[in-house]
């Protein structure tokens, strides 16, 4: 039945059948999260980092209505070049891409769904969506959070950008029973910075410890994902002042221009990148690579258990 919609790349399918480690990767980060051509270079570098760490990468997207788990280099180049012309696809959008045979770049939420369909348990990215600042008025809460509540895939990220309200994001995750694991940290990292004013739920210091907890969760039938918060390496972290000033300005501009809904996050990401003169892009790339390596280590530990 699933084959009707789903194309799992042969290398990925074989790895899954043999209980070899596989790490899922999203495609909205390629098309909407970074500018061309560095988005494509990064996506390929991330796949390479996962291979060098001993796991198989599976970048996920929708191409002409087919749900793709594992992309070719040509697919990645195509999505990166098309950029925001490609539809940003969350849970809501998947059936319409399929029915209309459209292309779609999958968010964290949609990537989790396709990863679970394929049998992949670990997914690495940059940052997750969350509760936006001012959500008390706008109701802007990323569908990523609801997906984490129900879909059993662990998401390795560098925390969440402070374009979001990190405190409300923590509260939302707590309500929905989604654990936030700090990898070698007691604080929720804020993407560009290692620190924030928020804590994590459980600090675990090794990939094996994380895999053991995930296995227990899922074997107990406790459905849903987990956030594995991996701080950006110190040497790539940004000065708090610089990044906060850029975020404040981007938020003001978004408000003035009436940006809302699914446009909001891509707008803020692009403006923060422009306002920091590309320094934030370098940090962004480094933290994604760092997450890919931890994702691979967790996937390996899970298949060894
Ligand atoms: N945060 C980032 N980089 C990203 C995204 C979020 O730092 O690329 C992308 C991810 O694909 C995430 C999506 O799933 O934005 C969330 O969008 P929204 O807030 O509209 O749910
Ligand atoms: Mn939103």
TrEMBL record:
One Gene Ontology CC term in the entry: cytoplasm
Xref: Gene3D superfamilies: Indigoidine synthase domain
Pfam families to which the protein is assigned, alphabetical: Indigoidine_A
Cited InterPro entries: Indigdn_synthA-like, PsuG
Cofactor binding description: Binds 1 Mn(2+) ion per subunit.
Catalysed reactions listed for this entry: D-ribose 5-phosphate + uracil = psi-UMP + H2O
Alphabetic keyword roster: Glycosidase, Hydrolase, Lyase, Manganese, Metal-binding
Gene Ontology MF terms in the entry: hydrolase activity, acting on glycosyl bonds; metal ion binding; pseudouridylate synthase activity
Cofactor(s) the protein needs: Mn(2+)
Subunit structure: Homotrimer.
Function noted in UniProt: Catalyzes the reversible cleavage of pseudouridine 5'-phosphate (PsiMP) to ribose 5-phosphate and uracil. Functions biologically in the cleavage direction, as part of a pseudouridine degradation pathway.
Family: Belongs to the pseudouridine-5'-phosphate glycosidase family.
Protein name: Pseudouridine-5'-phosphate glycosidase
Organism, as annotated: Vibrio aerogenes CECT 7868
């Amino acid at each position: 039945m699933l084959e009707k919609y789903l194309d799992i790349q042969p290398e990925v399918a074989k790895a899954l059948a043999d209980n070899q480690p596989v790490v899922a990767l999203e495609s909205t980060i390629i098309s909407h999260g970074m500018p061309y051509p560095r988005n494509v270079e990064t996506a390929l570098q991330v796949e390479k980092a996962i291979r060098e760490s001993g796991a198989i990468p599976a970048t996920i997207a929708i191409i002409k209505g087919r749900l793709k788990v594992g992309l070719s280099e040509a697919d990645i180049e195509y999505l990166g070049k098309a950029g925001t012309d490609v539809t940003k696809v969350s849970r809501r959008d998947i059936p319409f891409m399929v029915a209309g045979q459209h292309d779609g770049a999958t968010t964290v939420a949609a990537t989790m769904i396709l990863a679970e369909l394929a049998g992949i348990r670990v997914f690495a990215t940059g940052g997750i969506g969350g509760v936006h600042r001012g959500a008390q008025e706008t109701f802007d809460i990323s569908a990523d959070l609801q997906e984490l509540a129900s879909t059993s895939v662990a998401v390795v990220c560098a925390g969440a950008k402070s374009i979001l309200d990190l405190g409300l994001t923590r509260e939302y995750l707590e309500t929905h029973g989604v654990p936030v694991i700090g990898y070698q940290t007691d604080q929720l990292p804020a993407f560009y910075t290692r620190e924030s004013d928020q804590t994590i739920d459980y600090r675990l210091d090794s990939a094996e410890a994380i895999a053991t907890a995930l296995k227990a969760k899922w074997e107990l039938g406790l459905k849903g994902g987990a956030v594995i918060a991996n701080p950006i390496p110190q040497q790539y972290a940004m000065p708090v002042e610089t990044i906060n000033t850029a975020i404040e300005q981007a938020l003001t501009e978004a408000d003035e221009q009436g940006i809302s809904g699914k446009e909001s996050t891509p707008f803020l990401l692009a403006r923060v990148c422009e306002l920091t003169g590309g320094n934030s892009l370098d940090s962004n790339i480094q933290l994604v690579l760092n997450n890919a390596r931890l994702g691979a280590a967790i996937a390996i530990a899970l298949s060894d258990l």
